[in-house]
Amino acid sequence: MPDAQTIAIDPPAAENPAVGIDQSSGNFSYEMKYEFDAGSGLSERTVDYISSVKKEAPWLREFRMNALKTFDSKPLPTHWATRDLENIDFNKIRYYLASGGKPKRTWDEVPDDIKRTFERLGIPEQERKFLAGVEAQFDSEAAYSNIKDTVAKQGVIFVNSTEALREHPEIFRKWFGKVIPTGDNKFSALNSAVFSGGSFIYVPPGIKVSHPLQAYFRINAENFGQFERTLIIVDEGSEVTYMEGCTAPKFSTSTLHSAVVELVALKGAKIQYITVQNWANNVFNLVTKRGLAHEEAEIKWIDCNIGSRLTMKYPGVVLKGRKARGEVLSIALANDGQHQDTGAKMIHAADETTSNIIAKSISVGQGRSTYRGVVHIPRHLKGCKNNTECDALLINSNSRTDTYPAITVRGDRHAVQHEASVSKVSEEQIFYMKQRGLTEGQAMSLSVNGFVNELARQFPMEYSVELKRLIDLEMEGSVG
Amino acid sequence: MATQATETQAAFGGFSAELFSAHAAGQTAAPSWWLERKRAAYARFASLAMPARTDEAWRFSTIAGLALDASRKAGPVELGAAMPVPALAARAALTFSGNRLAGRGQPPPDLARQGVTVETLSEAVLRHPDLLREHFMAQPQRLGSGKFAALHEAFVQEGAFIHVPPGVEVSEPIVLVHRAEEGPSFPHTLVIAGDGSKVSVVDLFLAGAVPQRTALAVGANDLYAGHGAKIAYAGVQDWSRETLSFQLNSTVVRRDASVQSLNIHLGGRQARHESLSQLQAPGAFSEMLALTAAEGSQEFDQRTLQIHQAPNTKSDLLYKNALAGRARTIFSGLIVVDQDAQKTDAYQSNRNLMLSDDAEANSLPGLEIQANDVRCTHGATTSRVDPEQEFYLKSRGIDPTRAHELLVFGFFEEVLNRLGDAGIHGALTEMIVAKFKGLRSPHAR
Fold first, then answer.
1. Is B35 in a helix, a strand, or coil?
2. B445 part of a folded domain
3. Which residues are registered as beta bridge partners of B103?
4. Within a domain: residue B407?
5. Contact flag B380-A408 (C-beta cutoff 8 Å)
6. Beta bridge partners of A276
7. Cα end-to-end span (Å), chain B
8. pLDDT at position A469, please?
9. Confidence class for position B3, pLDDT limits 50, 70, 90
10. In terms of CA atoms, which chain A residue is nearest residue B351?
11. Residues on chain B touching A80 (C-beta within 8 angstroms)
């Protein structure tokens, strides 16, 4: 196995295995002087401040103000979601922190403190190795944003939300807020009011972007709320793979991350969106992600949740055009003090659309993982198919898992199946491996890796290697 | 103020304090503790809100269809073909009509000798107060119908009480008939099987002779299987097509006991069935079966909860729905495994057979697992009749309509075949066949 991953960028090496999905590697922060600070709490003034700093057009300011009203009017969804949401103090959160200036195109221009952060997380290293473009967001704004010349020359646009809506409204305004309307849920409304940063991508017709584009989201400040906004439009027959990673230091107070991610795959386009979520486990991670797949288009969410205190995230695909395909592959790992409430939504809105959901979760210690899903096939369609598989692995006797799917099928011309199972690591397997000289911990890791292997194989190599390593780490001390 | 009055009207649906007082005053023979329970139940009914759109327990239900109506509005309605009285009804040990005892069958002579009690609720209130206090609606309402359970308890007038002493095996099934007449029905069945006993009970819920424009049925049944006891229960709901029906079941299964319950849903306009199975001690087994034949604009709403409260318990649920016309079904099931319930073996399966392009099936199969050494799986499928199987039958010279019918029957046979008693199997099949004639797919023609 090539051992390129262990190159130390910043000693000690053990703390930083490259891709930043080692849970401990993100646990550091630097003192920062922020030039722009919207203060704590949320009001019209906060929204005004953000809109003014960004020198936004009046329509956008109005969009934010309306969203704030929607956010205020919506109750927390605790009639179905966990009451842990009530522990978010919206008045203590800082909604906008930035150092000012445009994102830099080279790492040399990035201020030292911020550069040090991303170097420790291995981002420039990764960029050199296998990425077509990188955006690195530090609190509210991107510190660095670059796209390889070859890709830019193909007409691919890869910028942050502020720049996109200012420089390319003709491309982005058409779909902005259309896949996920402001009022979709309380947190999409919150994001719509205070969003900053994120990636806006446009791929022109007939372009297959050969290497992935990547965004990296970093929370540095305490009590900070990160609200990035991502919109990816892939024109007819084009393809793109997008990856995002994230970390935050572990502060004693809780932090909020609430993103909105909209994908639009036009006729025959393909989007693959890969997330490796590794927030510190004091972060509330409440994210709305949805894609719109036109005729014969394909949207695939690969969603891996390892960090955070509470994650609520159900990536969805609206299958709008005939023969569109949607897929969600999800891996969740919940350890002590964590609740991974994840899942998928598949809305079939055209004939012969197909969707596939495969979710695997592992609960360790007192961790809780929840699968929540929606599959909806309305009246008068024909030939729609959905397949859903949810498998949960419980490691300890007090680990917990829940499954809450909701499937609606109208009409007699579809085929829908849902299966779920809950199991523990097989004692026979562990016994066999121990008999062959493995320790119980090693046997456990191997077994858990086997459980997710089928999905992990579909990740880019760098990610699946890291996932394996992380599982080994999490399994240490879980046995006995 | 006007809206407040409307809200009050919606919350009570005519079941006013005056109506309750009149009902209570009519219970002249009832002891005071019983009336006290009914008063408390009425207060609970009055204080609880009607289900709302945002209640998770009522997700996908047609909330507007739940409006209660205490009034008696007889005819005129369109009369369908008169439903033949099922053969089983002739064997009824107790027949209730319009909330009153209408007939008592000749009990097999050995029943009394064995000490088996088959009597009415009003008799049991006087003769077996301790058993009633312990078992009558004693389990928690966890599936959303607390208000309707309270309504039932407040207004229940008559019902069946079956008690089988420890070690006694009843050979013949005990058949009970509940026939609706004018006004709301509150059928009740309580089965208490003592340790090591064995009993089989069939409940038939049938439409009355007088057609009604609106009808309401709020029924409840409690099944209690003591250590090592075996209960086989079958309920067939065939109310009129105007009926709003609630059936609230609770099943308690003790050590090494087993309960098999099969609910067949044929009638009603909108029918909600809730079934709570509690596996309370090691070795307990609950088998939960249901068949629904939905057509026209019928809505069948089934909610189940399998709670594993002790180690080494087993539950197995299979709910099958066939949907024709513009019918809707909702299946919402939850398996809960408590922290101490290691070695649980739980299964839950919902199969929907779509026979029309306008029917709608909703499935919410859920799991909440807090123990790790368990085997829990669930599955839900929604599909049409397999065209390959249909083709095969047709290629063998079987008429297309007949082929389709055979396949739909085959779909239900998987459940009916689990019944132990051949006589009941035959009688229930006959009842389903009558309804099935209406469940033909347009594709078959």
1. helix
2. no
3. B95
4. no
5. no
6. A245, A304
7. 56
8. 74
9. low
10. A417
11. 56
Q: For chain B, list residues whose CB is within 8 angstroms of any CB belonging to chain A.
A: 54-56, 59-60, 339, 342, 352, 354-384, 441, 443
Paired residues of B299 in beta bridges: B270, B328
ipTM: 0.89
* Record: contact A405-B380, CB cut-off 8 A: yes
Q: What is the mean pLDDT of residues B298-327?
A: 97
* pLDDT tens-digit series, residues B380-433: 999 998 889 989 999 999 998 888 888 888 899 999 999 988 889 999 988 888
Q: Do A410 and B358 touch (CB under 8 A)?
A: yes
Residue from B369, B384, B390 to probe the interface with A (highest A Cβ count within 10 Å) = B369
Subunit contact A403:B441, Cβ cutoff 8 A? no
For residue A372, give the chain B residue with the closest CA: B366
Q: Which 8-state DSSP code applies to residue B64?
A: G
Distance CA B102, CA B106 (A): 14
**Is A407–B364 a contact, with Cβ atoms under 8 angstroms apart?**
yes
Q: Hey, is A127 helix, strand or coil?
A: helix
Q: Is the residue at B198 inside a domain?
A: yes
As a whole number of angstroms, the distance between CA A133 and CA A118 comes to 15
Q: Where are the domains of chain A?
A: 4-313, 429-480
Average pLDDT over residues A179-202: 97
Which amino acid, A269? A
Rounded CA-CA distance B217/B185 in Å is 5
Whether residue A449 is predicted with pLDDT greater than 60 in this model: the reply is yes
Distance from CA of B381 to the nearest CA of A (A): 4
Tally the domains of chain B. Answer: 1
B356 phi/psi in degrees, rounded to 5 = -150, 155
Find the DSSP H helices in B48-128: 109-113, 121-127
Nearest CA in chain B to A407: B363
With CB atoms and an 8 Å threshold, state whether A420 touches B378: yes
In terms of C-beta density within 10 A (0-12 exposed, 13-18 middle, 19 or more buried), how is residue B417 classed? exposed
Whether residues A418 and B363 touch (CB distance < 8 A) is answered with yes
Decide: residue B282, CB within 10 A, 0-12 exposed, 13-18 middle, 19+ buried: middle
Q: Count Cβ–Cβ pairs < 8 Å, chain A vs chain B.
A: 132
Residue A198 region by backbone torsions, left for phi larger than 0, else alpha for psi between -120 and 50, else beta: left
Which of A422, A426, A444, A479 is best to mutate for the B interface (most B CBs within 10 A)? A422
* Residue A33 token pair: 């002087």
In this complex, do A419 and B378 lie within 8 Å of one another by their Cβ atoms?
yes
Q: Please name which of B172, B231, B169, B227 lies closest in space to residue B197, comparing C-alpha atoms.
A: B169
Q: At what angle do helices B32-47 and B17-26 cross, to 10 degrees?
A: 160
Pairing assessment for the beta strands A400-410 and B360-369 based on DSSP bridges: antiparallel
B277 and B310 Cβ atoms separated by less than 8 Å: no
Closest CA to A140 of A39, A231, A72, A57: A39
Interface of A with B (CB under 8 A): 79-80, 379-380, 392, 394-424
Return the beta strands (E) in A80-187 as ranges.
97-98, 133-138, 141-147, 157-160
Note whether A394 contacts B374, CB cutoff 8 Å: yes
Q: Do B436 and B444 form a contact (C-beta atoms < 8 A)?
A: no
Give pLDDT, residue A477. 62
Residue B412 lies in a domain: no
State the smallest CA–CA distance between residue A459 and chain B in angstroms.
Answer: 27
Chain A residues with CB under 8 Å of B373 CB are 397, 424
pLDDT (tens digit per residue) in A239-252: 999 999 887 887 77
Looking at A100-114, A141-155, A406-420, B216-230, which range is the least confident one? A100-114
Chain B residues inside the 8 Å CB shell of A401: 367-369
Residue B233: domain span? 2-383
CA contacts within 13 A on the Cβ side of B319: 33
